[in-house]
Amino acid sequence: MKFRIILFFLIFATLLFSGCNSKNSNSPKNENLTVSAAVSLKDAFTEIGVLYKTKTGKTVNFNFGSSGALQKQIETGAPVDVFASAGEKQMDELAAKNLIEADSRKDFARNKLVLIAPQNSNLNLENFDGLSDLKVQKIAVGNPKTVPAGQYAEQFFEKNNLKNVLQSKLIFAEDVRQVLDYVVRGETDAGIVYATDAKSAEGKIKIVATAPETDHDPILYPVALIKDGKQKQSASEFLDLVLSAEGQAILQKYGFSDV
User: CATH 3.40.190.10: does it fit domain 113-215?
Assistant: First the structure.
């Protein structure tokens, strides 16, 4: 009798364990996706992420930073599903290494380069040429090695023969939002950011001038699926939302223009 009771409990435990394993094996996989995006997209993409979750029930894990730094992360195997860059250069280099789904690549937004100063600045700064004035001692720009905004600024300086004149005044930042922070806090006399960044800090900075688009490469934002991404369907849904009328309306709300 005792043997039968023990046998019964052993069989029951086995069936219970098997049932748990069955439930676990049939449970839905985590479909949250990881999107690495230029930090200048932070406000717009955060809102698009909320819309995406409303539509799909899936959460987007964003990784914001300078496009160059994000590119390097992808090259070293970071688990990313979608990459949105503030420059074509970074996406081109990933494409050359066969790290993106080439057919998925799309330009989805455009931006402008602007010169800003602290809201309470006493300097009589009216244009880019005014940066050469001796009173202007510190100018924040993105590091051109990794930050597209810094690369565009460098192109502008070269085109207008300002690079050598301003070199000693430049304070390099790790991304364009750091440039904005320097200016907002009054730690630099001026800075060069995207128009969308300036819009996000209305009331804290003043826009001095806008760089002519002919003086630097077009500021286009490409997006693409990463070839080794694990969430292909979810990533495609997010990309489609960015390109949709709803996604574009959100981008334009934050100051981006369409391509």
Answer: yes
